[in-house]
Specification:
The complex is a heterodimer of chains A (338) and B (296). Chain A has 338 residues and is an all-alpha fold. Chain A is built from 16 helices and no strands. The longest helix of chain B is centred in the last third of the chain and has 49 residues. The radius of gyration of chain B is 26 Å and the shape is globular.
């Protein structure tokens, strides 16, 4: 909350850019560079207005402006309500300093706890993404290329069953499975394999399994859709020419399914790194995960600017990940969000 | 892929393991909903009971949260589907140089972590409503609908866009040449063509809203939805009543999937019927024409 000055910047900038584009479009029309019917000529006034208002409200008030407001807030100090917009309300880097050094003023010691949690979250999210890809790829390939219609329908139905079960319930299922009085421990003790229950949740095994489980379906559907559009004859031809099976996957199927692979990986990474339900339900007292830390900045420390800064760090990481995936796979954004 | 006998066995084992991983936890949770002990357990199975379902429906907070969730879901459909429709139409009309920028902006919420959407929505509207003095607008349900609509509208847009790209502009031009007004073309030609996509988008929007937690937990402020109440319940301790809720959701999903499948088959059958009727009409037209029908 930074009074009117921050809000003026947040709202003014995007609208200035939009007006500039609009002006340029008018100029083009005036000098005859643009051809074809104009927007309102093509849609009529009523429908044209509906389109402009709906898309304008969505793009500005729902997407862009809130993000900018969060960025603005992350560069401001935490102040009591009365002082907002006052002389103390100046741009500052103190929230980011806190993330790195655990203090808003000194830079003497690193903030090991938060930095470690951050890198652990990113690292584990990448590993879970790779694990889910390896787990889903063979099934997606089978469904898309060689399953008979009846079996395909059955498999799709089985995949749909868990789809709308929300994240909290998914995490809860793993708690029922893995807690010290849970099913797995009872089975192991009953079979005489262990004497004491194993603390799966304290060792974060439950958390990582639950995270992988929660977003499994986000991987399989994009992969299936992408592999499905591959012509079977290409695989046949490769096999006739004597290509071993791994050649077929590495040089024919995967290059073709690149958009689907990138799309699945991006979604799973983003959802895992930003997961909140699983760490809350499955995390032990010493669990390190970045999202609950962000949550606590808001609701335990009541430090909104700091929370905004932490959220922005997470967002930039996700953007960086998406850009890296696009660069590595040489794709455009449009190809991975189909 | 042709596989040897060994390969086939290995693949069968892999598929079994995959579905055990996917459905096993849900099955275990489902069984615990019908077992008598206080703590969700599957084994030993001490006795069949439906009491946990009663306990679920007796939970005042959960029922209140459920109402709010349904209400928010309906509002999100009413906001997201029109926005998604407008977004898709603009996508097909916007000039090529602006298109990639526009696409980047409207698709970005799909690739943004949910908690960030929730946080930014609250931060922005708190400022805006304070500065403009419209504090009544700073309400959990309003903010949740706005926050969820950011990415759900993008889902809707992508669903509608997929169908819109198959739309034949000639139909629109023919109607305009025959004297139809723009709104008439929109309501009598474009919307009927997009109807199946709009229907799919509405269902997708409602379900995505209903199951959302990350965005909702921030945007709902002091109010409650089903998922936020659930999160509180799960943190307090484990009760089989929560398993009972999962059983209901899975059952509803299965019924919904079957209903959707039947609806789709009916649509396909109707489309096939229409095509055949059109083909027949064309042949008859050719027969009564001046020129003899071309011998097939």
């Amino acid at each position: 909350m930074s009074g009117t000055s921050g809000l003026a910047i947040v709202i003014g900038l995007p609208f200035a850019v939009a007006l500039l584009f609009f002006g340029l479009a008018m100029l083009e029309r005036r000098y005859g560079i643009a051809t074809g019917p104009g927007f309102f000529q093509r849609n009529g006034l009523a429908i044209g207005l509906y389109l402009v208002i709906a898309v304008g409200f969505w793009a500005f008030f729902i997407i862009v402006l809130p993000q900018l407001a969060m960025v603005d807030m992350s560069f401001r100090p935490k102040l009591p309500f009365a002082q907002m917009g006052g002389p103390k309300d100046v741009f500052t880097l103190e929230n980011y300093r806190y993330f790195l050094f655990g203090s808003t003023t000194s830079t003497a010691s690193w903030n090991y706890l938060h930095i470690k949690a951050f890198f652990l979250t990113i690292g584990v999210s990448i590993l879970i993404t790779l694990f889910n890809f390896a787990l889903c790829y063979p099934l997606a390939f089978h469904m898309a290329q060689s399953a008979a219609i009846a079996r395909l329908r059955l498999l799709l139905l089985l995949l749909i069953i868990p789809y709308w079960v929300n994240e909290i319930l998914r995490a809860f299922a793993f708690r029922v499975l893995l807690s010290s009085g849970g099913v797995i421990n009872k089975l192991l003790i009953g079979a005489g394999l262990i004497g004491e229950p194993i603390d799966f949740l304290g060792a974060d095994i439950g958390l990582y399994m639950g995270l992988s489980y929660a977003y499994l379906l986000m991987m399989i559907f994009p992969l299936y859709n992408a592999i499905e559009s591959l012509d079977k004859n290409q695989i046949e031809a490769a096999r006739d020419l004597g290509a071993p099976w791994w050649h077929i996957h590495a040089f024919i199927v995967m290059p073709h399914a690149k958009p689907g692979i990138a799309s699945g990986c991006t979604l799973v990474f983003m959802l895992t790194a930003g997961a909140l339900a699983a760490p809350l339900v499955l995390g032990g007292p010493r669990t390190l995960w970045f999202t609950p830390i962000v949550y606590d900045r808001f609701y335990q420390a009541f430090n909104w600017p700091q929370g905004a800064a932490y959220a922005l760090i997470l967002l930039l990481t996700c953007i960086l990940f998406v850009l890296t995936v696009l660069k590595v796979f040489r794709l455009s954004l449009g190809e991975i969000t189909r | 892929m042709k596989m040897g006998a060994f390969g086939r066995v290995m693949f069968a084992v892999y598929v079994a393991v995959f579905f055990l991983y996917l459905l096993g936890p849900l099955a275990v949770m489902g069984v615990s909903a019908f077992n008598t002990p206080e703590y969700p357990q599957v084994w030993p199975f001490e006795g069949f009971t439906l009491n946990w379902f009663d306990a679920l429906f007796a939970d005042q907070d959960l029922m209140y949260g459920l109402q709010t969730s349904l209400w928010i879901g309906v509002l999100v459909v009413l906001v997201s589907v029109p926005i998604g429709l407008a977004g898709a139409i603009v996508m097909t009309q916007i000039n090529a140089r602006l298109r990639s920028t526009y696409y980047l902006i409207v698709v970005s919420p799909v690739l943004t972590p949910g908690i960030i959407i929730g946080i930014s929505t609250v931060v922005f509207w708190r400022q805006l409503t304070t500065v403009t003095g419209m504090r009544f607008f700073y309400d959990g349900i309003v903010l949740t609908v706005l926050g969820q609509s950011s990415f759900i509208s993008a889902f809707c847009m992508l669903v509608i866009l997929a169908r819109l790209q198959r739309f034949d502009r000639a139909q629109e031009e023919a109607a305009l040449d025959l004297g139809a007004s723009y709104p008439q073309v929109f309501f009598h030609i474009l919307l009927p063509f997009l109807k199946p996509a709009l229907f799919s988008a509405a269902i997708l929007a409602f379900l995505s809203s209903f199951e959302n937690y990350n965005t909702t937990t921030f945007a709902i402020l002091s109010d409650k939805t089903l998922t936020t109440v659930l999160a509180g319940r799960v943190r307090q301790g484990s009760t089989p009543a929560i398993s009972a809720l999962a059983v209901i959701i899975v059952a509803a999903t299965i019924l919904g999937a079957i209903a959707y499948e039947l609806w789709k088959r009916r649509e396909d059958a109707l489309a096939g019927h229409r095509r055949r009727a059109a083909a027949k009409a064309e042949i008859e037209e050719a027969d009564v024409g001046f020129a003899p029908a071309p011998a097939e």
